[in-house]
Design goal:
Elements (H helix, E strand, L loop, with lengths): L2 E2 L6 E2 L7 E3 L6 E5 L2 E7 L9 H11 L6 E18 L4 E5 L19 E2 L2 H4 L11 H12 L6 E18 L2 E10 L5 E2 L8 H25 L3 H26 L1
Parallel strand pairs: 5-9
Antiparallel strand pairs: 1-2, 3-4, 4-5, 5-8, 6-7, 6-9, 9-10, 10-11
Helix pairs in contact: 4-5
């Protein structure tokens, strides 16, 4: 199969099954898809396995979840993303394969140097190949952002290191999954644990006893029945409002 190197323009002849290819003329690392060569890079790993517990705990604490965490399993992959650079400073990173954690659609390209792709350096077992076609992904980006495809300056395939972490939280028997971006440590998840039940029960008990005390005080302090009715009319909406705040925070 003959095609041209996207970098130097030389004619190259990768095998039809080749995906990862190095131009023999300019040594550029290329990704071959549908008879087309595309620039191919990877982002180096900086977050190591021992960092994951502290990253996960800090992320949960940021969501007001402070129970003990147990990591069940971890795995490292290099996940493919299409990177489209348009005129000006408009750039878009979009997954080139599917993931059970849909939040990875929000991942942004880390501010690090991109390295020429090397399957040997990363290890074949950790690599996820691109399944989404370049042109289909580009069309989706153009449609979603209302950008003209004529403004496209360059496009490339970039493999980013992603940790998949399965964990349990507190006494909850469910197993949750997050993706940790392997350069900056950003965390992405579809679902997070609910607040502990004991916090919810305590909040409801406090609300109930507090409401009862308010009703008693209002009833005793009111000089006549109309004042009492007015007090109840004011206090009931307040109780419902407090209840909503409790449910939103702990439920």
């Amino acid at each position: 199969m003959d095609t041209e190197c996207i970098q130097c323009g030389a004619k190259i002849s990768p095998d039809k099954d080749d995906r990862f290819y190095s131009c023999p003329f300019c040594r550029s690392t290329l990704y071959i898809q549908e008879g087309r060569s595309l620039q191919h890079y990877y982002v180096p790993l900086k977050v190591v396995k021992k960092d994951l517990m502290s990253i996960l705990s800090a992320w949960l604490a940021g969501n007001e979840l402070h129970e003990d965490v147990t990591i069940v399993s971890t795995s490292l992959i290099y996940f493919p993303f299409w990177y489209f650079q348009f005129g000006g400073s408009e750039n878009h990173l979009t997954p080139a394969n599917s993931s059970e954690v849909e939040e990875i659609n929000r991942i942004e390209l880390p501010l690090v140097d991109l390295l020429p792709f090397s399957a040997k350096e990363l290890g074949q077992s950790n690599l996820v190949e691109a399944q989404f076609l370049h042109d289909v992904s580009l069309e989706k980006v153009v449609t979603a952002t209302n950008t003209s495809p004529d403004r496209l300056v360059s496009s490339s395939l970039i493999h980013l290191p992603l940790w998949t972490v399965a964990y349990t939280y507190g006494t909850d028997p469910a197993i949750y999954t997050v993706v940790v971006e392997g350069t900056g440590g950003a965390v992405y998840a579809n679902v997070i644990p609910a607040a502990p039940l004991k916090q919810l029960r305590a909040a409801y008990l406090s609300l109930g006893y507090g409401s009862l005390a308010l009703f008693i005080v209002a009833g005793l302090a009111s000089p006549n029945v109309w004042w009492r009715i007015g007090s109840f009319a004011v206090l009931v909406p307040i109780v419902f409002l407090v209840g909503k705040v409790v449910v939103d925070k702990y439920g």
